[in-house]
Amino acid sequence: MASREGRRHHHHHDLVPLAALISREMKSEKMEKPTVRYGHAAQSRKGEDYFLIKTDCQRVPGNSSSTFSVFAIFDGHNGNAAAIYTREHLLNHVLGAIPRGLGRDEWLQALPRALVAGFVKTDKEFQSRGMELALFLVSVLCYLLWTVTVASVGDSRCILDAQGGAVSTLTVDHRLEENVEERERVTASGGEVGRLSIVGGAEIGPLRCWPGGLCLSRSIGDMDVGEFIVPIPYVKQVKLSNAGGRLIIASDGIWDALSSEMAAQSCRGLPAELAARQVVKEALRTRGLKDDTTCIVVDIIPPDNSLPPSPPPKKQNRFRALLFRKKSHDCANKLSKKLSAVGIVEELFEEGSAMLAERLGNDEPTTQSTSGLFTCAVCQVDLAPSEGHLSPCWFHLLHQLKTLARTFSLR
Q1: Which one, of 100, 228, 219, 244, lies nearest residue 163 by Cα?
Q2: I need a labelling partner for 341 at 20 to 30 A (CA). Which of 22, 151, 191, 213 fits?
Q3: Residues of the chain with pLDDT under 70
Q4: Phi-psi region at 381: left, alpha or beta (left = phi > 0; alpha = psi -120 to 50)
Q5: CATH architecture classification, 32-171+229-358
């Protein structure tokens, strides 16, 4: 009895009041917090580009020291309904997929998986409304202190122009013309990849996947296309050095005209607002207004440093050619070490798989839904506890069986 009381007494001494924990976290988050300055610019041709800038998000409601920013570009095609719908709902779906009560580090670790869940839920909700001719691509970025998390589908892009002149691509283009891995995934899933055929058998235009004829392999809101068109984003999370850096987020109207290096170089030394205008101006000068062009520039500035990123010293020009995009895990690990070695970035997380079983499998704790029920791993709708743990609902199980049957019949 005495030993039990002793253990209980010792346990009480180990407890730390909640207020003390919050105070510690607030102090740690206030330390060396960078300044975020941003600007955006756009030229419209189709009226399908939309963007979101929200700088007052709070990880802990009411705690100003837990503030983070969200910057997103939504590039629609064949209409703008999906872009508008996703701008209004995606962020809430992502934040709703993160369990409550997490500390800063745990919250950041949960964010990549929550982004996947949020993208999938937004896609399924939009499609359930039956809105046609409103297709959608997205590039989303969340920022918290020195950590940047990027999620993307389609061909919008986010690049990092770090101090020292290293231009890193933080997203992956899901355009079939350039992405061999996505072409292989589509064909392995039963789709076909080819160009448009005209009279006489001649092929024109970019590579597309059929059925549907989409030149991208991942998007939100696409209906009447094969199951291989998925809303599952590529996600990367990096930690910047205390030198900060500049993020350039833009739709494909920019990247069709400029390389990542050209975009970064065109606006170095300019404040964020002017930088965004300059990137759009340079894209229009190079290619003309053939598509909507939207650009957001975000400067992450260290404390006591109000200057925008300056042109890099010539002696560090050799780092400009470094790309952050992974070609393989081994190659990427070596590149990440090189970038870390020169104090540019530290890679915390990267995953680009299009398989929900790998991204939302039951190897990790399930995310909390508002109803407390389990969710379908495909459509993210609520399931009763008896229906399983992050498993597909009956509708999607039947759909998968039909797809398998059709695949085998073709063989």
Answers
A1: 244
A2: 151
A3: 1-31, 47, 77-79, 130-141, 223-224, 305-344, 361-411
A4: beta
A5: 4-Layer Sandwich (3.60)
